[in-house]
Write a structure and sequence with these properties.
Elements lengths: L1 H11 L5 H8 L1 H8 L4 H12 L4 H8 L8 H37 L18 H15 L3 E2 L5 E3 H4 L19 E3 L2 E3 L5 H9 L4 E10 L11 E11 L4 H16 L5 E8 L2 E10 L16 E10 L1 H6 L8 E8 L1 H8 L12 H4 L3
Parallel strand pairs: 1-5
Antiparallel strand pairs: 2-4, 3-4, 5-6, 6-10, 7-8, 8-9, 9-10
The structure holds phenylalanine (PHE).
The site of phenylalanine has 11 residues, from strand 9 and strand 10.
Length: 356
């Protein structure tokens, strides 16, 4: 420093005011001046010395006035000082930041004995899980998922499905009528008709969704419930295909040991028609309260699509055949989890939902 001071004093006084030289001449003092100061103060000094119109910058601008032979030496010295100043200021700033961090940590008292705040993780409603399980099974078998409107034309809900006007399901007792020819769909079967109208065979779909009937609410009935419809149409589809598919579905859904049983039934839109029972997945067929001691649980309705329905949808029954099934989801979920009232599935009570 002293050498610098000497040379600068010797050559510089001619072109720069003493005040401009201050930071260089007092570099050691500056170190002391900055000691223990806050960031704001240090930044002020930085601007004063190194800023665009700061002292060092002005000195560098005056270098042209110094005799040529001295210029490289003095230029180097001034630059050295500039670097030294920069380093010193950076060092101070880092030290201050470190100190602030330490102070903050010291003042931040963390009581590690306090219980943590629990994050609630959302999860699926048991009905959605059951629907998703069923969807997964059929998607893996190459089925597509179709949807249809919940507010449906009488034509799709009844007429096209060969449900004559005299059928009891057409009466006010089962169906919510919105207008004379508009209903809340009473089953997911209208999606069969809509799909067959829109798509040429081969068809392989399932249609999950909400369905509505004018049932009074009791432990096992609700005016809104859920079904999954299935429909397969192709050349040469037989009742064995129907049985094989539904047996596989039952085993995947309820376990490999589940047995299936088909009972003859009647649906206007399938011929022949059947209901499929599964051996009770709670007692394995021994008899319990869920299966009402019978060992069997009624799972779904099914059958071969009625030729009249195929015709109504523009599919030639002499060339194509197919099967369909419709399965209620709510009762199945209730049995699976031992839920004693269907209202729990709709009330969104967290105390109930948290259990799944
Ligand atoms: N739609 C019928 C019901 O709601 C079930 C079913 C669907 C039966 C398809 C046969 C074929 O009960």
């Amino acid at each position: 420093m002293s050498k610098l001071r000497e040379i600068i004093m010797e050559n510089f006084e001619k072109c720069c005011s003493i005040s401009e030289l201050n930071p260089i001449l007092k570099l050691e003092d500056l170190d002391e001046t900055l000691e223990g100061k806050d960031l704001e103060f240090i930044n002020e000094i930085r601007v004063k010395c190194l800023g665009k119109s700061g002292d060092i910058t002005s000195i560098l601008k005056c270098l042209g006035n110094i005799p040529k032979d001295k210029r490289p030496e003095i230029g180097k010295l001034v630059n050295d000082v500039k670097r030294e100043l920069e380093d010193m200021i950076d060092e101070k700033i880092t030290a201050i930041k470190e100190r602030e961090k330490e102070d903050k940590l010291k003042n931040e008292i963390i009581d590690i004995s306090l219980p943590g705040v629990r994050n609630f993780t959302g999860h699926r409603h048991p009905l959605s899980s059951a629907l998703n399980d069923a969807k997964d099974i059929f998607l893996s078998l190459g089925y597509k998922i179709e949807e249809g409107p919940e507010i449906e034309l009488d034509y799709y809900n009844f007429e096209a499905l060969n449900i004559p006007i005299t059928h009891p399901a057409r009466g006010q007792s089962d169906t919510f009528y919105i207008e004379d020819d508009v209903v809340l769909r009473t089953h997911t079967s209208p999606v069969q008709v809509r799909t067959m109208e829109m798509t040429k065979p081969p068809i392989k779909i399932i249609a999950p969704g909400k369905t509505f009937r004018t049932d009074d609410l009791d432990a096992t009935h609700s005016p809104a419930f859920h079904q999954i419809e299935g429909l397969v149409i192709d050349k040469g589809v037989t009742f064995s295909d129907l049985k094989g598919t539904l047996e596989l579905m039952a085993k995947r859904m309820f376990g490999e040991n589940v047995k299936t049983k088909f009972r003859p039934h009647h649906f206007p839109f399938t011929e022949p028609s059947a209901e499929m029972d599964i051996s009770c997945f709670v007692c394995n067929g021994k008899g319990c309260s869920v299966c009402k001691s019978s060992g069997w649980i009624e799972l779904l309705g099914c059958g071969m699509v009625h030729p009249k329905v195929l015709e109504n949808c523009g599919i030639d029954p002499d060339i194509y055949s197919g099967f369909a099934f419709g399965m209620g989801i709510d009762r199945m979920v209730m049995m699976k989890y031992g839920i004693d009232h269907v209202k729990h599935l709709f009330e969104s009570d967290m105390r109930f939902l948290d259990q799944f």
